[in-house]
Amino acid sequence: MDNKQMLMIPGPTPVPEKVLLAMAKHPIGHRSGDFSKIIAELTANLKWLHQTENDVLMLTTSGTGAMEASIINFLSPGDRVLVGNNGKFGDRWVKVAKTFGLAVEEIKAEWGKALDPNDFKTLLEADSDKTIKALIITHSETSTGVLNDLAAINAAAKAHGGALMIVDAVTSLGATPVAIDDLGLDVVASGSQKGYMIPPGLGFVSVSAKAWQAYETATIPRFYLDLKKYKKSTDEDSSPFTPPINLMYGLQASLQMMKAEGLDAIFTRHQRHTNATRGAMKALNLPLFAPDNAASNAITAVAPLGVEAEKIRSTMRKKFDIAMAGGQDHLKGKIFRIGHLGFVCDRDILSCIGALEATLIELGYEGVTPGSGVAAAAGVLAKG
Amino acid sequence: MDNKQMLMIPGPTPVPEKVLLAMAKHPIGHRSGDFSKIIAELTANLKWLHQTENDVLMLTTSGTGAMEASIINFLSPGDRVLVGNNGKFGDRWVKVAKTFGLAVEEIKAEWGKALDPNDFKTLLEADSDKTIKALIITHSETSTGVLNDLAAINAAAKAHGGALMIVDAVTSLGATPVAIDDLGLDVVASGSQKGYMIPPGLGFVSVSAKAWQAYETATIPRFYLDLKKYKKSTDEDSSPFTPPINLMYGLQASLQMMKAEGLDAIFTRHQRHTNATRGAMKALNLPLFAPDNAASNAITAVAPLGVEAEKIRSTMRKKFDIAMAGGQDHLKGKIFRIGHLGFVCDRDILSCIGALEATLIELGYEGVTPGSGVAAAAGVLAKG
């Protein structure tokens, strides 16, 4: 149906009407006093969302631009880094790190499984000369719905003492606690079209004091993504280059909404939706791709048996106007992914599960008991 | 007056209501067939605006990101390049080029004067070994309102034969002909918040076949700004990374408006507004900062005598809700700049001149004959 699409993909995520209308305001000059006030408000609220006193910088980039900035500002060619790789975005970290000449040691896990913190620990404990300069990992692996054990991997980095902890939190920030200050995360990259509830076009990077120290000796050249330029301007409630003014109007509205809801309530809501979605999949005999103990709060990946994932997606789209994501790379056609990240309410979960049930029945999927998925989800949602 | 501001700065420029409302549409998935159609339309219309069959690529960056991409994809550390520098954005070219290790030879002119094409010609003619790899210039120098002689400088490059012609057309594209194919310009960078009539957040780079050849041997590392990734995706009506969907909705609307107006009409309108504005300044005895034979069609810089530029700007802003730009760097407080770029109609020019006259009278500026500025502007506008 025209104009009726519902996004249940991991980005772009649903955008509140308040945000859409805020973005339709006419831009003002980005060097004006009025815009400085907006930058000051955004910076304060971003620190709140990031649970940190570190700098949180706004870049005009996608999430990948924020990832690149997180590497090139703090490392030098030849630097030894451990890079977690258990999905498409771990793989992207590897590619970025290799592009800029880092000595990459990949810590791998099968797609759909979590990284093993002991793999990091073993290498870090053996590194008595402190040659490892950074650990680089993806927190929530969007391609598989796996949540890596950030706290455990970070603990290994902290025991080592020398390595920076660099994290892609693109689909965890705003969905799952990313306790930057409590854990001591050095560099955290994210993107706007995810938990921030606004369209794509803004990247975010938080930077610790330890990372700024590393900046001073890092030699990879950078200009547009030179984070010191952003810090200097942000400290003056300004921006080094022309910022995406209208997206920032949207961000202003979305952060105000998030503050009104509260961080704990936001995280609880995402956890509830994850539990409801996973409970429904189990009731529908649909195999979950990520294990219960490593499930992302942003996205649930499902590997259906006996019915094609792409047929499920196309039926959901055509008949019920729901967009779900497919598998990426070698998982194409093998899984579908339900995004429940950002501006998603309990009703949305029931809508999606209800439509999925109807789709499975239409496609002749055996083993589905009509109503069982919605009932399981409703049971979880009822607990609040 | 609240909500009443009129932008006469060189960016962000005024945005049509159609564009603002297009940006307020809910995003759809950027990997969907419907979005592919939008990318295909944008790409075709961008080629029309750029007057080229070359690739025109869209980046999620400010104009500076597009400038950096224009250098790092086609050159290698140590490459000898001639960089024109007669203002803040020429200076930015120098900084970017030096950051990435190029052997920069600056061709300078005083701020407010145009680059001398002979300065390039002399060096190029002496370069029998073809060691010069690129000429890098700013077409319309936003900081001073000077239009550099692109055709003459480009002719020197063409006579040399070996050097790439790399151009910052940030405030010329959409205001002044940038005849990429007719001239054979290799790399042209621009940004959305200028002649494109949309807010900031998108950068554009056009790339010639000769530049793609240079790409193959260029060794500066790049990932997020790797233009080959953008070309590969654009050829498939897609994008390598998540694009700024809502800004692209806006661009779709603005390019449709521009096509309806027609390229010649757009350029004629900008020329008329430049002539009207400059005529008015002369009638008001306000010294123009750029000479008549090197005047940008996007922006008119004025160096008032006997009255402070910043007082003029603040009165215009407070009393008439018109935002004009000030001077940058050493020109701070010495000039003001009137932007007449993008979505500007004849009425806007009269509004601005009328308010400026009133402001000058209020500030006790001697030598202003009430009505003379508006009369001069109206005289030019009457000629159509």
Automatic annotation (TrEMBL), chains A, B:
Gene3D superfamilies, sorted: Aspartate Aminotransferase, domain 1 (3.90.1150.10), Type I PLP-dependent aspartate aminotransferase-like (Major domain) (3.40.640.10)
GO CC terms in record: peroxisome
Annotated protein name in UniProt: Soluble hydrogenase 42 kD subunit
Modified residues (N6-(pyridoxal phosphate)lysine): 194
Pfam families, alphabetized: Aminotran_5
InterPro entries according to UniProt: Aminotrans_V_dom (IPR000192), Aminotrans_V_PyrdxlP_BS (IPR020578), PyrdxlP-dep_Trfase (IPR015424), PyrdxlP-dep_Trfase_major (IPR015421), PyrdxlP-dep_Trfase_small (IPR015422), SP_NH2Trfase/AEP_transaminase (IPR024169)
List of residues binding substrate: 337
Family: Belongs to the class-V pyridoxal-phosphate-dependent aminotransferase family.
One GO process term, biological-process aspect: glycine biosynthetic process, by transamination of glyoxylate
GO molecular function, one term: alanine-glyoxylate transaminase activity
Coiled coil: none
Organism: Synechocystis sp. (strain ATCC 27184 / PCC 6803 / Kazusa)
PANTHER family noted in UniProt: ALANINE--GLYOXYLATE AMINOTRANSFERASE (PTHR21152:SF40), AMINOTRANSFERASE CLASS V (PTHR21152)
Domain of life: Bacteria
Cofactors demanded by this protein: pyridoxal 5'-phosphate
Annotated ranges, domain Aminotransferase class V: 12-328
PROSITE patterns from the UniProt entry: AA_TRANSFER_CLASS_5
Keywords: Aminotransferase, Pyridoxal phosphate, Transferase
